[in-house]
């Protein structure tokens, strides 16, 4: 009798071990709309999109909305990091993932990237470009299209990274080229000036340096060109965001 009870207990434990991973996986949500800015249908569609992208590239893609991040902390980026770690987000043992958090009352947003694979795909420059995908929609209060653009752009960046071509800035190479060309031009100019100075001898009379044709008694204004200055009026865009590091990863924050 005791042996039968022991066998039943072992079978129950085995069944529990088989069921728990499934329940834990089903309990993970890629879209958490605490601020209730999405309809139920929109939430389900975004959940399916984010889950599909996450499974295809083994990098979690997450969306979180809250009414006011200040309830959880003093900095929107730090709150985003805390949420990511508190709920053990991410895929695989390294918990690779990217999360976008919106705080509706203050219209603050933050992105957080964690894990080597995720950071390879989402450099700070890539995050800056990513903002250009969703911020225009958020500026019009079009939450669904903004989140959809975010998820699809994440998919594009992850696909590029998987092909060994992550989104990176070419500014560094351009900077080196500009410096090199400038140095070469300066070297040529100095060489020409030094060559012209070889036959120069010291003159002690001031009149040798005075032009006989110099006359300041007449003044004439001649129109050659005009300069037009344009000032760009900033709107809700990534130009006002800033980069962060911390929480074991990196990200950006700003207004929408």
Describe the protein's architecture and organization:
By secondary structure, the chain is an alpha/beta fold. The chain has a domain of 142 residues: Diaminopimelate Epimerase, Chain A, domain 1. It contains seven helices and six strands. The radius of gyration is 31 Å and the shape is globular. It starts with a helix and ends with a strand.
Strand content: 5-15%
Low-confidence stretches: 1-27, 171-183, 202-238
Q: Please provide the ordered H/E string of secondary-structure elements.
A: HEHEHEEHHHHEE
Class derived from helix and strand content: alpha/beta
Summed up, the helix count is: 7
Q: Kindly state the mean pLDDT as a whole number?
A: 76
Q: Please state the overall shape, judged from the principal axes of the Cα atoms.
A: globular
CATH class placement of the domain at 27-168: Alpha Beta
Main-sheet strand order equals 1-2-3-4-6-5
Radius of gyration: 31 Å
Helix percent reads 40-55%
Measured between the Cα atoms of the first and last residue, the distance is 67 Å
Main beta-sheet annotation = 6 strands, mixed
The total of beta strands comes to 6
CATH topology term of the domain at 27-168: Diaminopimelate Epimerase, Chain A, domain 1
